[in-house]
Design a protein that fits this description.
The protein is mainly beta and about 120 residues long. The protein has no helices and eight strands. The strands form two sheets. The protein has a five-stranded antiparallel β-sheet with strand order 1-2-3-8-5, with no helix packed on it. Strands 4-7-6 form a three-stranded antiparallel β-sheet, with no helix packed on it. The chain is globular, with a radius of gyration of 14 Å.
Length: about 120
């Protein structure tokens, strides 16, 4: 489902946002906390930005990097879902309302197209 956001993509201006802190070092994996719906990673291809949310959002998703001072957004869809997405680009960031039906079990990718 999320291959479109992985294969043939490039890094974006920033790698991501969110509270996750990664502990590095030999055998440190067990020291890392689970990611949350506030942890988002970015890739890009052509005029599309992929925002991968690392846990299913229980509430709205806010992507601070996409405030209305940045590029204007044309359309958003969740890969693997046909549900319409309610969203608003504000000074605080891009605010995406959570969907009713969970798609998958691991990471959830919003495909964001710009004008």
């Amino acid at each position: 489902v999320n291959g479109e956001a992985i294969y043939g993509t490039r890094t974006w201006d920033i790698y991501g946002e969110g509270p996750a802190e990664v502990v590095e070092g030999h055998l440190s994996e067990h020291k890392n906390k689970d990611n949350t719906e506030k942890d988002i990673r970015f890739t890009t291809k052509d005029d599309v930005l992929y925002a991968t949310v690392l846990d299913w959002p229980k509430d709205e998703v806010v992507i601070k990097s996409l405030s209305n001072k940045k590029q204007k957004i044309k359309q958003i869809q969740l890969l693997g879902s046909s549900e319409d997405i309610s969203w608003e680009q504000t000074a605080m960031g891009l605010v995406i309302q959570s969907l009713k039906n969970k798609v998958g079990n691991y990471a959830f990718v919003y495909k964001i197209e710009f004008y």
